[in-house]
Amino acid sequence: MQRYFRLKELTNYVKISRASIFRLLRKGEFPQPIRLGQRLLIWDKVEIDKWMIKRYKQQRQENV
């Protein structure tokens, strides 16, 4: 079963603020949400997990 996050769940899961998420979205550095209405955005957990792994690997390479 596929899981999706609403914004509040997403901020708790990735441990970054709402403002940071939207800043990263504007820069093209965060997975795009799925729009379910004018005001409802959801994010695919699989895509968020991939983004988190990629970000972790980048941070490790920078610290080597």
> How would you spell out the order of helices and strands?
EHHEEH
The domain count comes to 1
Distance between the termini: 38 Å
The tally of strands reads 3
Q: In which order are the strands of the major sheet placed?
A: 1-3-2
- Overall radius of gyration: 12 Å
Largest sheet: 3 strands, antiparallel
Q: In brief, what are we looking at here?
A:
The chain is built from three helices and three strands; from the N terminus they run βααββα. It is an alpha+beta fold and 64 residues long.
Structural account:
By secondary structure, the chain is α+β, with helices and mostly antiparallel strands. The protein has helices at 7-14, 18-27, 45-62, and strands at 4-5, 34-35, 41-44. The protein has one domain (4-62). Strands 1-3-2 form a three-stranded antiparallel beta sheet. The radius of gyration is 12 Å and the shape is globular. The relative contact order is 0.18.
Key attributes of the depicted protein:
64 residues; alpha+beta; three-stranded antiparallel β-sheet; 3 helices; globular
Helix and strand arrangement:
Elements: E1 4-5, H1 7-14, H2 18-27, E2 34-35, E3 41-44, H3 45-62
Antiparallel strand pairs: 1-3, 2-3
